[in-house]
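Re: [help] complex structure
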Amino acid sequence: MLDEIFTASVFAATIRLATPYLFAALGEMYAQRSGLLNLGVDGIMLVGSFAGFYQVYQGGSLLEGVIAAMFVGALMGLAMAFISVTLKAEQGISGIGLYLFGLGMSELLFQSLLGTPRTVSGFPDIYIPGLSDIQFLGIGQIFFQHNLLVYVAFALVPISAFILNKTPFGLNIRAVGQMPAAADAMGVSVSRVRYITSTIGGAMAGLAGASLSIALIGAYQQNLTSGMGFIAVALVYFGAWRPYGVMAGALLFSFVNALQLQINVIGFDIPTEFTVMAPPIITILALVITSKSKEKPTELTKPFERGT
Amino acid sequence: MQAQTRLSWGWLQRLADFFPVFIAVLLAVITSAILLIALEADPFTAFSEMLGGAFGTENAFAETLVKSVPIMFVAIGITIAFRGGVVNIGGEGQMIAGALLGAAVTLGLGESVGWLVIPLALIAAFIGGGLYGAIAGFLKAYFDVNEILSTIMLNQVAVQLMNYLLNGPMLDPESAGMNHIPKTARIAEIAELPRLVIGFGDNALFDRTRLHWGLIIAIVLAVISYILLWRTVIGFRIRAVGQNERASRYAGFRVKQQIVLSMFLSGGMAGLGGAVQVLGLQYRLQTDGSPAGFTGSAGFNGIVAALFGGLNPLGAVPASVLFGGLLVGAQKMQRELGVPAAMITAINGIIVIFVVSSQIFIQRRMQRRAKLEIAAVEKNKFEDTAQETG
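Output below.
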């Protein structure tokens, strides 16, 4: 039984399915480190996945699809920044508003432009020469036979760690999230940093959506993400606001997703309802376990007001 | 004399407080018009189709009210939670939890206790939804788990739990083995909530419509919730925690328990909404397996209605009717003009954002007003002392 479950193809699927979580959660991490909680990630992912898909479906290149997805994502991230930074609206509820907007908008566009679920040929798998042939433990199959976006997503982990910890921009983000008054006194514009991180987060959520519709699945249907974006937000908590922690969380959830698929394939006798229930339950448990983390940006969800 | 002028002033000011909400509505209407134009539909035709479809005929209005009933229950619940400082997004899951427990009690008791089955089922539903909501409250209070995330996750869990139960243990025995939709057996006739007819004879309003007594239950609960929140110690504590957690702690309130309590009450209301759908409308618990298959997204629409109703249980009632009308009207619009009804979900999102964003303007004016009042008091004091010494 166990050797049927823990196969190389399950681990390969784990790596592959981590892509949308990684893009969305890394993007959200930037926003949260600067003190801005965007709960609308799932809505942005939905609109992004549709935009990317439609671009490719209309005959655009895959790159154009990615750009379209990131562009609409960035716009929605920018809108979120305007709502929570400039208008200082309560972030939790306005994030839900953004989610509802994205959910309705993607459905509206889907029904009026496509009507029924359609498919496109998405990003092809790229076999890394030499490495993809490694038979030992199935390493070649697990790590080196994926589509381009999978490699990009994992490459963004060390890049994000470098940006956050080693660059002046990263320092500004952290300062704005921990001590906005001090950052402000040092001449860092709190608003500008939060606008930038929110826009980056939005673009990456859009990319996460595209990685579903034009890479992993190659198709679009209603509510394609089915709540992945909310798990991505939780992953930032789970990963203690660090890129490598976020990656560990993304792999955990993609492993659960891969197991779900495998259990269906081998016909293991568990009602599908229970396997679908697993990710949300694990998310709650993960939030409980990591709740005492000291890394949490102290200013998360608090609008900055000069002189208070 | 002076008191009277001040009173009318207060009334005017309160009206002004609603001004941002009107602006939010206006912006939502403008956005809808832009969307409609983009979809190559004439906004004026679309709006009039929606209005007519929602309120145009007696039957349309009855359907609007039918749709608004579950939204009302959830909105009242959301109001209690929000007032207690907890952002409850779990209306969907709590409705399901309440409906499951309510349906189980109804089916279990059958005709054995006569009409008493109705109150018993409603109590069970309140407890079911309440406990399901209390989970998120407990996790927030004692483990600092973000309640928005936990309630959304609990929504997904509840949907799957319902799908499992309605496909297995609670499946209607008559449809077992056949190609079935997930549903329970039909409830006993005595457990049905009566249809709501206003007036007698041939001129009775809502005669021969699906409108049921769930509406009256919801309105009564709105009044009770209003009294609870603003006229009792329990409500005072809940609101105090929502306004200022630290001050409440210093005042000696058990903040953690208040958070669990407000989520219990909030979830209980949503749970009742679920059970009322079973007892008053469907006469069984059924779904199509999709997330909104049973709830019709009332758990999310309730959030919009609660915000729109000014986070006041009494405001939640007309707000819910409005959003019920929006849903019914949108279906008419879809039939007549081919504009997908999903547009309403997008518009709801925009309304949430607009209403929440407008809070800052209300707050700013309140701060300004407070400053003015303080200045007035200081001035009076100064004049009083001047008179005394003079």
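Chain A has one domain: 2-116+141-289.
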